[in-house]
Amino acid sequence: MKSQDQSSTKHFDSLENPPQNKFEYVNCYNCNNDDFEILLIGQDDLTGKAGNFRYVKCNTCDFVYQNPRVKAEQIKDFYDDDYIAHDRNKKKEGIKAKGFEHGLKVHDGKKEKIITDHYNVTDKTEILDVGCAIGTFLLHMNKKHNAKVSGVDFKDISNYPEAAAINSYVGLFYEQDFKDKKFDVITMWHFLEHCYDPKRTLKTAHDILADDGRVFIEVPRLDSLTYLLQGKRWPGVQAPQHLTMFDKKKFIEFCEEAGFEVEEYMAWGAFPAYFYIYFGFLFRFWGGKGILLDNHFIPYTLGLILMSPILLFEKWLNLCMQTVVLKKKK
User: Fold this and answer.
1) ∠281-282-283 over CA atoms, to 5°?
2) pLDDT band at residue 125, thresholds of 50, 70 and 90?
């Protein structure tokens, strides 16, 4: 990621008189009250794009959200082609490229394992990935299981030759016309924290889920060890792209209020916990300036090797992630 010119900081500054064409004040996503206290001020540590972004904690229900938040029509400026999830389509060469592709395959394989541990995926299974980016996970599931795959993202992936097998929807998830289509598996891998209306998103997922289907959602966990150690530089803040932050209690409450039963809760996920460990501490020393991921390939890899014995216990350490497996309430 490239550092941006910091001279335009106040153009996206939510601290003093935030410009109304860029920001909007919102009530609590959970209880709709507007009584809150400031939790932290975040910056775009990943890309280095200028701005200060305020996250508040509701005094009524303790939910954490960005307020004022960047308007939907403005947030796209923070999702350019250098953004991690959309960076995978770039042609890369050399040992870094091989390492990147290996990591991506491992990541998609972990997602697959979480799903197949709870659902028997066949060539008749309809899978929908919400926030699919360029669709590598869906292509993985199509190749491995011949599953029927669909994806939703605000970026149109139909122009990618590799994505021909994906039935793609462009725009907001809850505004899509799925007609009477039902999905057996719906996934949201680090999508819900980006969502402008998480309750409506979960309700939509419930409406289009097959009666015996499953929903898999992974988000950063606010009440985790890495947040405790890294604070406002925690990668789970990821300002301003992340609009909400969920602790375990609120995450489960949101899902249950949408009509789901939590079949399993996991204090871990498919996303590599080491990413949060490495970059969270890096952001503490290099916060707000942005990073070029390619420059960290060697130190990141060496650190990962050194920490691998500890990461074997990730499922029991509450490091940074949380995942739920949901089914419809009977």
Assistant:
1) 90
2) very high
